[in-house]
């Protein structure tokens, strides 16, 4: 971790850098969620529940899309999906 | 709204101080003896005399949490508490400092239980001295109102950005009616500009607050707090000077010296006991005694420079504390002793615990303390602490005859 | 400095009386302090309230131990507590009662006693009921006469600016009590 002097640090720890530039936590995953779009009813519950905001709604195609750069594989989306459309598969 | 003189309780004066400071969010939770503060504020808001959001929360911890979140969006906030309520907020008190949020709260100084007590004692706010909150102690209702306005100004200074606690004694101020001058709102607006922080929650400028920091950099963030607290001393002096220029009331800075010219012995105190001590000093001076009084207005940041200066001019310092901390002497005694250690000046010092748990402090009690200090100093008495008016062995007694004979030593 | 102690029962307005007196005195340029006995209170329990009045700034912030005046708003308190505790030797006890001086002297030991039937005056002016008469404004009117340290006009102004309702009735009660109160001193009136 880089050493900053007390003059360099901000007033209080604030993260202003958008997450694209930070370390991709997707590397932490052991299992990855996979959506079966035939079963998916577009209720958006998975999007709502993702604790990492790693699922986005593709407005054009009208589907939930998982961002595997940041998905940590917690499995909450699979647990909450009312149609069991999401399965957790072992990461290879 | 032009200035006007009203007869108000300390709590009502506090509510006026809040109203004049124009906060945008008030978090409200009741506790004796501060409850009427938030009740008066509710009336002001209901009447349209204060434009603020009023959040009734479920505990004091939530009250400060609500203020922290609101302050983080870039608005001025306020809450009030006392005793166990302040203790319950403790975790959030640390947060407000680390997050550098200039929240101002009022704490009605009330004893900690058990034994259960609703009466005046400073242990509640003193217990929070390590957090990094600035602390001021009011002597009368006027000062509470004025301290509120001064506190927002100092806290919100970009070089400070630390929260402030305005302390008022339970009942002696909260429930006692005195004459209070309500300042002109326009003058307050001139003295206290709108709150404009550098960083705040904004959906158009997303940021994360309160992030994890490794040991590599934590010290540096905390050093900034230390520096801010140190810089605050001069900011306070300046804010008090400006206050006098605009409103005409003189508060002298972090400390006020009363009749210390030519004094051999000085008494030190905080809060309402200072007011009673002024009368005691007046009477002693008219009897020819060379005694003065030092009022500690700000306990944090600690006014070490003022004490180093006073110590050079006196033979003894009698430290009256309405709080008993455990382990070794009282808070003021320890801080003064610490401040004097690196210097060559070491006047005789003695610690007096008085008024604990709301026990009344009379003019006679303070005169007794003075006679004890004077005699102890002359004899170089090794006894370092006196328990004034304690019932039982080891107490410093204050019987009328002993005080009149000036023989108040063990 | 003049120190006054009020005795009443919770809910009778003793604290309000102590405050109104302070407000009235402040109109006359005096410095004032008023506070209730610091403690938990409930309706019907004895309540003590205090007022300090001085020409110069009041510095002392401790309780009142030797009042110059004691005001008893509820006569039933005379047999319940020692209302004259600490009263200065030339201090005055002002009591709300319909009884005569001889009966009162059996219960109260003081050199100077003032009596006024504030309950009767309050009820005649429609202030409260016989069980719960609102006697505070009447007693303040009587106090103005007895002490001479605050004028009836100031008391009436304090009522006008602070009474939530029945301002005229309260002012009238104060005036009637002012006129009706009788002072009895040891060794002549």
List keywords for this structure.
heterotrimer, A: 92 residues, alpha+beta, Alpha-Beta Plaits, two-stranded antiparallel sheet, 2 helices, elongated, C: 189 residues, alpha/beta, Pyruvate-ferredoxin Oxidoreductase, domain 3, 7-stranded mixed beta sheet, 6 helices, 7 strands, 34% helix, globular
3D structure, described in words:
The complex is a heterotrimer of chains A (92), B (410) and C (189). Chain A has a domain at 33-90: Alpha-Beta Plaits (2-Layer Sandwich), CATH 3.30.70.20. Chain A has helices spanning 45-49, 76-80; strands at residues 14-15, 31-35, 55-58, 63-66, 86-90. With 92 residues, chain A is of the alpha+beta class. Chain A has two helices and five strands; from the N terminus they run E-E-H-E-E-H-E. The relative contact order of chain A is 0.26. Chain B is an alpha/beta fold and 410 residues long. Chain B has two domains: 4-247, Thiamin diphosphate (ThDP)-binding fold, Pyr/PP domains (Rossmann fold, 3-Layer(aba) Sandwich); 255-404, Rossmann fold. Chain B contains 14 helices and 17 strands. Chain C is of the alpha/beta class and 189 residues long. Chain C has a seven-stranded mixed β-sheet, with helices on one face. In chain C, strand 5 (92-96), helix 2 and strand 6 form a beta-alpha-beta unit. In chain C, helix 1 crosses helix 4. The longest helix of chain C is centred in the first third of the chain and has 14 residues, at 14-27. Strand 8 (177-182) of chain B pairs antiparallel with strand 2 of chain C, so a sheet runs across the interface.
